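User: I'm writing a short report section on ligand binding and want a predicted complex to refer to. Could you take this sequence and glutamine and write out the structure as tokens? A short remark afterwards would be nice.
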Amino acid sequence: LTSRLRPFTSTIFAEITELARRTGAVNLGQGFPDTDGPAGMLRVAQEAIANGVNQYPPGAGEPDLRAAISEHRQARYGIEHRPEDEVLVTVGATEALTAAMLALVEPGDEVVLVEPYYDSYPVAIAMAGGVRRTVALRQGPDHRFELDVEALRAAVGPQTRALVLNSPHNPTGTVFTDAELAVIAEVCRDNDVIAITDEVYEHLIFDGRQHRPLATLPGMAERTLSISSVGKSFSATGWKIGWICGPAELVAAVRAAKQFMTFVGGAPFQPAVAHALRNELDWVERLREDLQRKRDRLAGGLTEAGFDVLASEGTYFICADVRPLGFADGAELCRSLPERIGLAAIPVQVFCDNPEDAKHLVRFAFCKRDEVLDEAIRRLHKLR
Ligand code: PMP
Ligand code: GLN
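Assistant: Sure. The structure tokens for the complex follow:
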């Protein structure tokens, strides 16, 4: 294995999911739902397979899917992306992100991440030979994680090529405020930095908050690549259809990398995703309401079990401080939890360059059936 990849041999999700499987633990670790997406969407995929949509789709993605992505961004956020050259279909958000790094980052260029970061970001930067800089989210008053704005200003400079913004944010559930977005946009504009936004949780956002794509801020459309995917919005994390939208020149660069990574992917799923973006947004709204209720259910259970629970404003996830229960290290706790009480969760410190900051935090996924959450809560009470 190359020195570039040696630090990243296994993912925490594989490790904890395997541990959960071996011990028969309830798995609130890896974030995937345990119910299916909209029936209409599933039917379109089945029909596509039956009707011969089984060969390579066009390199940029099925034109009708690109049109549906463009219509969705226009209707929801008022952003214009020409389907012909400003939208690219990828193998999940993961490929979009990695292809963007390979296409845009020269060896030695710096890329700024918000920490804790989603686990594929540092690997994508490393594959491109880039150097990561991280800016921490800190626990503010009212139990919300906040962007350290001064640290952001200090981290970005002439050496910075790109900044990755994930909102709603995995693992904390933070939705960046307009004020935070304004500072991020200003820093990107002032330093001529490309913003790469991971918006896979764009629809899973709670308590009346709105998702605001960074590309809608002044001067940002021309320097932002916006990424999303089918997995979270439509409960189909195994389909791996994603997309990246932005200025034609940047999208062409990403496409140059993507065509030699996977060339294309998921032909019969592409018409199904187009159908979902056009016809299943009411279904997504019900999913959103459901997830908000599940967040409250799990937050209540965690609080009763003695955890100090942090705010989750979106995503599948909620974080809790384990110190009130007498534990000092979330990673140690998560490695023993399956054996101990039959529950799996993810330590937040694995998403950090400065693990000390998040040592006491554990992430729980609430995108599960109510009976699964209730069983998890019952087991959590055994920790006392
Ligand atoms: N970004 C974030 C923040 C995620 O949580 C995930 C997890 N699924 C992904 C990207 C990956 O998305 P996809 O499955 O579409 O590649
Ligand atoms: N996005 C999912 C999570 O954060 C996991 C995806 C994966 O297993 N790589 O739990």
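A remark for your report: The pocket of 4'-deoxy-4'-aminopyridoxal-5'-phosphate (ligand 1) is lined by residues 92-94, 118, 166, 170, 198, 200, 229, 231, 237, 240, 242 (CB under 6 Å). The chain has a mean pLDDT of 97.
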